[in-house]
Amino acid sequence: MGATELNASQKDRVGYVRIQDIPVLNQDHCRMRDSQRVERIINEFVCGGPERMQVVSDFDYTITKQRTDDGVAVPSSFGIFNSCKSLPDNFKEEIDKLFHKYHPIEIDPHMPISEKVQYMIEWWTQSGKLATGFAFDLTELDQMTSQFKHALRDGTHELFDALLRLQIPVLVFSAGLGNSVVSLMEQANIMQPNVKVVSNFLRYRDGLLDGFQEPMIHIFNKNETVLEGGEYYELVHTRDHIIVMGDSLGDADMAAGVPSSSHILKIGFLFHHVEANMEKYMNAFDIVLVDDQTMSVPQALLALIDKRHQLRHPHGSNGTAPVQAQLQSASL
Ligand SMILES: [Mg+2]
Q: What is the CA(77)–ligand 1 centre distance, in A?
């Protein structure tokens, strides 16, 4: 039923949700290019229920905070690995050189993405070559990540608990280092059976590091097209109500590759260079949250979906097919 076709009295009768009744969407730092569109999608989500939902989220500075209360900077998933003490002396030096060569290309506002892609592949390939030929004990990574398990956005645990309870699959999509992502999420107790991490994972050969496993996930191929035809895609592709969350402009395209009939609500966390970036973020995301270090908005959306779901299934039978535990082990 197209929500826009309803008149005011019909909206009241079917429990239509209005933006003005959702407090977190009425805060000053919450911006929307088209609030009517957001309202329409929210109502589709609420009517469709949890069984049609999936969440696709970036990790670095989306699940982790962009700014912590104590001012301590949170490193990226690659940054956590790169700061491990046992890595060879020249490793960090060489990794820094690559950063200074390729990062300006990554953020160059003039170079087309089609041209950037080859440089990003070079960057990731050369990083993989550097992470080759020496021993590395993953328990060192666990020790490093444990220092940052409290640097997740406020409300992250509650959000992930609700997603598990409602059996909603979560894809954490990261062009960073998957080993750090999984380690940090495990230590923070949010690596639940409904969560799948697609990222770059270290590969070992004969006890020594051997670069990264395939396929390479870089900034410009980080979308569901890399999953097409794989097990995870099969498990979730019928879930056509999608919440996408990210802090980089490229994150807005993470659901590219899902059927065009899908309803996608994109939430962007904007922190750096707010004024300069605002227009681009407003064009890329449906909801832009400026210096919001919480999960309040996705939590509020889930609460609405949950509330309607409870009304339909008051006796606890949730009517949803269980999210297969094999989500985590599903290959791409
Ligand atoms: Mg990020």
A: 10
Clarify whether 142 is annotated catalytic: no
DSSP string, 283-315: HH-SEEEET--B-HHHHHHHHHHHHHHHHH-TT
* Tokens standing for residue 275: 């004024």
Q: How large is the angle between the packed helices 296-312 and 156-165, nearest 10 degrees?
A: 30
Rg (CA), the chain: 20
DSSP alpha helix (H) spans, 197-242: 231-236
**Cα 317 to ligand 1 centre (Å):** 37
Rounded-to-integer distance, Cα 66 and Cα 277, Å:
15
Q: What strands lie across the sheet with 30-32, from one edge to the other?
A: 30-32, 287-290, 263-270, 241-246, 53-57, 170-177, 195-200
Q: What is the pLDDT of residue 182?
A: 98
Whether the Cβ atoms of residue 131 and residue 88 lie closer than 8 Å to each other: no
Q: Residues with beta carbon < 5 A to ion ligand 1?
A: 58, 60-61, 247
pLDDT tens, residue by residue, 271-321:
998 999 999 999 999 999 999 999 999 999 999 999 999 998 887 655 444
Domains of the chain by range and CATH?
A: 3-69+152-206+214-327 (3.40.50.1000), 77-142 (1.10.150.340)
Non-local (6+) Cβ contacts of 30 within 8 A are 24, 287, 288, 289, 290, 292, 297
For 202, the 3-state DSSP assignment is strand
Q: Which two tokens stand for residue 131?
A: 């992470």
Strand, helix or coil at 17? coil
CA of 62 to the centre of ligand 1 (A): 5
Active site residue 137: no
**Which residues in 236-262 are b (16+ Cβ under 10 Å) and which e?**
bbebbbbbbbbbbbbbbbbbeebeeee
Closest of 281, 194, 262 to residue 224, by C-alpha: 262
Pick 219 or 166 by higher pLDDT.
166
- 12, 28, 34, 60: the catalytic one is 60
